[in-house]
C-alpha cells in the first residue's frame, strides 16, 4: 500500500500541466500560480467562465496565486486527458475571454510590457495593495506597469478605484476638479494638467 502511494505522489505534484506553465513559478517543490496569474477580471462573466472552464479534477481548488490548482483543460487543450497537448486556439480564446478562471492574467495586454529599467521603487516589492493605492498608482503606472497590470493605460491612470463603475460622473457638475485629478483614464482627462502629470509611456 505504501509502495502504491509513493507511486501516486509524483503524479500529484504536477497538477499545472507541463504543457503550459505560463503564469506559474516554481516554489521550491511545486509549480504554483504566480502573483499575476489570477490578478485580473474575466472579460466574460464569471458565471459563464466557471461553467465553460471546468477543472478535470472536480476537487481542485480554483486557480489562485500560490496554489497548484488544475488549469481547466479547455483553457489550453482540446484533449480530455490530463495532460493533453497545447492547442493555440483554445489558449487564445481563454486569454481573451476568461483569463482569471484559466490563470492567464499575466498573458493579457494589461501585463504585456516591461517595467522601467530604473524604476523609482523596486517593482519586485510592489504589493497588490500598492497597485490599488491612490498614493502609489501614478508612480506605479509609470515605473512598474507590468507588475500592477497597468500596461494598456499608457501611464495615464485613475488615481482612485471605481471611476469606471459610473462614467456619468465625468459630466457631473461639481465633480470637475475631482474627476480631472482622480478619474483621468475613465474620463479621458489625460492631457489635463495636474500636479502629477501623466508621463506618456510607450
Ligand atoms: C509550494 O506549493 C505547494 C502547493 O500549493 C504547497 O503545498 C507547498 O507548501 C509550497 N511550498 C513552499 C516552499 O512554499
Ligand atoms: C523586497 O523583497 C525581497 C524579496 O521578497 C526582500 O528580501 C527584501 O527585503 C524586500 N525589500 C524591502 C525594502 O522590503
From TrEMBL:
It comes from the Eukaryota. Transmembrane segments: none annotated. Residues 105-151 form the ShKT domain. This is ShKT domain-containing protein.
Amino acid at each position: 500500500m505504501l509502495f502504491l502511494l509513493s507511486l501516486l505522489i509524483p503524479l500529484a505534484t504536477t497538477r499545472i500541466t507541463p504543457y503550459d506553465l505560463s503564469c506559474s513559478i516554481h516554489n521550491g517543490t511545486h509549480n504554483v500560480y504566480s502573483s499575476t496569474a489570477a490578478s485580473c477580471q474575466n472579460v466574460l462573466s464569471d458565471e459563464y467562465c466557471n461553467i465553460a472552464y471546468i477543472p478535470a479534477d472536480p476537487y481542485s481548488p480554483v486557480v489562485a496565486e500560490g496554489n497548484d490548482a488544475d488549469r481547466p483543460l479547455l483553457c489550453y487543450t482540446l484533449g480530455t486527458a490530463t495532460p493533453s497537448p497545447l492547442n493555440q486556439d483554445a489558449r487564445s480564446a481563454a486569454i481573451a475571454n476568461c483569463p482569471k478562471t484559466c490563470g492567464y492574467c499575466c498573458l493579457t495586454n494589461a501585463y504585456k510590457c516591461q517595467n522601467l529599467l530604473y524604476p523609482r521603487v523596486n517593482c519586485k516589492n510592489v504589493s497588490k495593495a500598492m497597485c490599488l493605492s491612490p498614493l502609489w498608482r501614478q508612480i506605479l503606472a509609470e515605473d512598474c506597469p507590468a507588475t500592477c497590470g497597468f500596461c494598456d493605460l499608457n501611464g495615464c491612470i485613475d488615481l482612485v478605484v471605481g471611476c469606471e463603475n459610473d462614467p456619468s460622473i465625468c459630466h457631473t457638475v461639481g465633480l470637475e476638479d475631482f474627476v480631472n485629478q482622480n478619474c483621468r483614464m475613465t474620463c479621458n482627462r489625460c492631457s489635463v494638467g495636474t500636479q502629477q502629470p501623466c508621463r506618456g509611456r510607450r
